[in-house]
Amino acid sequence: AEKAKWPKETVDLWAKLSKKEANDIDTIQRSIVHHVTTTLARAAYNMDNFTAYQAVALSTRDRLISRWNETQGQLSKADPKRVYYLSLEFLLGRSMDNALLNMGLKGTYDKSIEKLGFNMEDVIESEVDAALGNGGLGRLAACYMDSLATLDYPAWGYGLRYNYGIFQQRIVDGYQTEYPDYWLNFDNPWELPRLDISIQIGFGGHVQTIQDEYGVTRHNWVPAQSVQAIAYDVPIPGYDTENCNNIRLWRSKPTRVFDLTSFNEGNYEKSVEDATNAEKITSVLYPNDNTMAGKELRLKQQYFWTAASLHDIVRRFKKSMREWSDFPDQVAIQLNDTHPTLAIVELQRLLVDEEMLNWDDAWEIVTKTFAFTNHTVLPEAMEKWSVPMFEYLLPRHLQIIFDINLFFLQKVEKKVPNDRGLLNRMSIIEEAQPQQIRMAHLAVVGSHKVNGVAALHSSLIKTTIFKDFVDYYGEEKFINKTNGVTPRRWLHQSNPQLSALITETLGSDKWLKDLSLLKGLAAKTGDAAFRKKWMAIKRANKVRLAELIKERCGVEVSPDALFDVQVKRIHEYKRQFMNILSVIHRYRTIKSMTAAQKASVQPRVVIFGGKAAPGYYIAKLVIKLINSVAAVVNQDPAVGDLLKVVFIPDYNVSVAEVIVPASDISQHISTAGTEASGTSNMKFVLNGGLIIGTLDGANVEILEEIGEDNIFIFGCMAHEVEDLRHAQRYRGVPMDPALQGVISAIEKGTFEDPKIFQPLISTLTVGKDFYLISADFASYITANQQVDAAYKKQDEWSKKSILCTAHMGKFSSDRSVKEYAEEIWNIKPYSVKDEGYM
Ligand code: B1N
C-alpha cells in the first residue's frame, strides 16, 4: 500500500538495486570475499577450509534466497493448489554441493574457489550433515522435496527444527556409544529464521461448553500453558529450474505473556522452569526407527508441530478470501506416517470450534484434504497414545477423537450390523488398561487415500492391519506409491564420474530429469571399451571408500576385493545378525582350506554401518559381535586378504554418498514381509551395484525391472512366513546345521567372551527365531556363493552392473512424486519465471 505512494525515482532505484547478482566468476569471487571480510569478520587471507566453506555457503545462500523470494512471490499471486508434506523427519544431509548442482552453478563456483586458493572437495567436506531423521523415512522426505522442487510442484514441507539431530555414533571397545549431535554449533547458513512468524500453541487446561445464541452447543478449549512456535525456512532448489520450494521447520520458545505472568507473581523459579520446558519441545529428535517410545514429550512434539503447521496453512488460505468448502481445492496435506495424525483432529477443531462450521461440513473438508502414507507393518512401530496422558495434554482433542470414533463406528454398525468383534477391531480406541488411541486407525478414517510404499507392502497392509477398513471403504482408497530416490543426489552428486560417463554416452544430461532414459545404456553392454570405463569408475570409487575405511577403522582393504555392503539402521528384522553369522561361516570355511583351495577363494571385504536405537539392547549386541568378529578375522594371517570385516562408525547421509557408489554387492536381506520398501537398495543398483536380497519391499520390483540374471534372490517368501514360524514353534524344526556350527564357534569363545553374546544367540532358540534366520540360512549361504562365482567372471559382471543402472528408471523419486501429485493431491506444476530480481 505504501509502495504505491513512492515517487517514481524511488521505485526505479529499488528496481535497479534489486537486480539479481550475476553468476560470473568475478561476481562470485567478490561475493565470497565480501562474506569473509564482513559477514564472518575475518581477514581476507589465511583462512581455513571451514571458513572458506562458510563464505561459499553464504554466497550460495544469497542465490538460494533470491530464487526462494521469486518463487514464493509468484506463487502468492497465482495462488495455485499446494501440497504440504508433514514429516517429523527431513534427513537432508549436506546442502552446498546439492544447491550448487541444482542451480547449475557448481562449475563456476569450482573455478572461483580454485583461483581463491581452495579446493572444492575440501570445502564441501567441511559442512556438517543436517541429520534431522533416523533412516529411510526421513531420507525419503528429503528425496521427495528435491523432486517436488525439480518438477515445479507448489509444495512446502513442515517439520521440526531439532537442536540435536540423530546422535553421533562412536565405537568404544566394539560397543556403540552415543554422543549429542549439536549441529547448530556453528550457525546454519541453510535456514532463514523468520522471527516475525510466531504462533501460540496451547497445552493442557480444560474445555468450556457453552450454548451460543442459536442454542447450539459450542466447545472452547482453554489451555493451561502456551508456547511459541518460531518458523525457520529451508530453501529447496529444484534441479534445472528457477523453482525453489520451502521446508518450514518450527522451533519452540517460551511465550512472553507467560513469562510476564510468572514474573509478576514473583515466582521466578517456576517461570524459568516453564521457559526451559517450552524450549525442550524441539530440543531432540527421537532416535527410534520403526519403534514407538510412547513418551509424553514426543506427543508434545507432534501436537506442537501439527498445530503450528495447520495454523500457518489456514492463515495462508484465509488470505485468498475463498469459501471454506474450497479448502480441499487449495490445500492437500500428506501425512508421512502416523506421526502427524493430530493434524486431522486439529483441523476439525479449528473448523468446528473456531470457524463455527457444523461438524459434518467440517469433516468433509478434513477428509478431502488429508492423505496418509503407511511405512511399516511392525507391531512395535504402531503409534498408540494412552488416553489419560492424552487427555491431560489435549482435552479438547480427546473429545473430538471420541466423536470421530462414535460417528465412524455408527456408520460401520449400519453397514455391518451386530458385529461387536468388528467394531472392537476397527475402533480408534483400543479397550485396554488404560485405553489407547490407535493413530493408524485415526489416520485411515480421516484421510481420502491411504498408501503403502512398495507394491508388496501396499498389498500386505490391505490383508493385515487395514483389512477391515478395505472391506468397509472399498479397494479404491488403498493404493500403492512405490518409493523412489533422487538421481540428482544419489548419482549425479555422489558419483560424478559415472554421471559424466552416462551423459557422454547418452549424448545429453536429460536423463537427470527423465530417468527412464537410462535404458539407453543397455545397448552398451557389448562395447568392451565402455565396459572398461564403467568398471574403472567403480574401482576409483572403491579406492575412495578404502581411504575412508583406513581413516575411520584403521583397516587396510584392497580395492580389488569384492566390496560387500550392508548399511542401514541396525534392527533384528533387517538381519545384520544373519549377515555376520554367514561371515563367521565364511571365515571357518577358509580356515579349513588347503593353500590350493584358498587360491580359488574370491577375496571379499564385508562392510557394515548403521546406528542402533540407544535403548535397543539386542541391536547393540549385533554391533559388538560384528566388531569382535572383525578383530579376529582381520588379524588372522591364515585368512589375509581373502576376508576383511569392517564396521564404519557414524553412518549418515554424507558417508552413504561415499559408500553407495563403491559397492559391488549390497545386502537387503530382511525377513520377507517386514521391510516396507527400502530405498538404499535403489541407490546401490542405480550406481551399478548388484544386490543380494529377499523377496521383500521394493526388492520385488527391482527384480521385475532388472531381471533375475542381475540380482541374487534367496529365502522364504512373505506368504510362507506365518507357516514357517508356526512350524518351528510347534513342530520343533531343528536349527540349520551350518548355522549350528557357527553358533558353536561363538560359544567356544572364538570371538571374545561368549557370555557377552548369549542374549543374542538366545534369539535363535528353536521356536523363538522370529525373523527366521535359521530357515533362510542355507539359501543365504548358497546365494553368497553365487555372488562369488559371478564376480569372478568380471566381463559378465560388468554387463550385469551396466544393466542394473540401465533399468532403474522406475525408481526415481520424480516418478513417485508425479504419481502422488496426479492420483492423490490433484496439483499441477507452476512454472516460475526468472524476472531477474532478488
Ligand atoms: O520407511 C522407509 C522404507 O523404505 C523402510 O522400509 C521403512 O522401514 C521406513 C517410526 C519409522 N518405516 N517406519 C519408519 C521411522 C521413525 C519412527 O519414529 C517409524 N521408518 C520406516 C521409507 O518409506
Keywords:
binds ligand B1N; single chain; 838 residues; six-stranded parallel β-sheet; Rossmann fold; 2 domains; alpha/beta; 34 helices; 24 strands; nine-stranded mixed β-sheet
3D architecture notes:
The protein has 838 residues and is of the alpha/beta class. It is globular, with a radius of gyration of 28 Å. The chain starts with 7 loop residues before the first helix and ends in a 13-residue tail after the last helix. Ligand B1N binds at residues 134, 136-137, 140, 288-290, 337, 375-376, 381, 453, 483, 675-679, 697.
What distance separates the N and C termini?
A: 20 Å
What is the tally of helical segments?
A: 34
**How much helix is in the residues?**
40-55%
Strand count, sense and barrel status of the largest sheet are: 9 strands, mixed
Note poorly predicted spans.
Answer: none
Name of the CATH class of the largest domain: Alpha Beta
Global structural class: alpha/beta
Count of the domains: 2
Could you say what the CATH topology of the largest domain is called?
A: Rossmann fold
Radius of gyration over C-alpha positions, nearest whole angstrom = 28 Å
CATH architecture of the largest domain: 3-Layer(aba) Sandwich
Tell me how many strands there are.
24
**CATH H level, superfamily name of the largest domain:** Glycogen Phosphorylase B
- What is the molecular shape? globular
Catalytic activity: [(1->4)-alpha-D-glucosyl](n) + phosphate = [(1->4)-alpha-D-glucosyl](n-1) + alpha-D-glucose 1-phosphate
Organism: Linnemannia elongata AG-77
EC number: 2.4.1.1
Family: Belongs to the glycogen phosphorylase family.
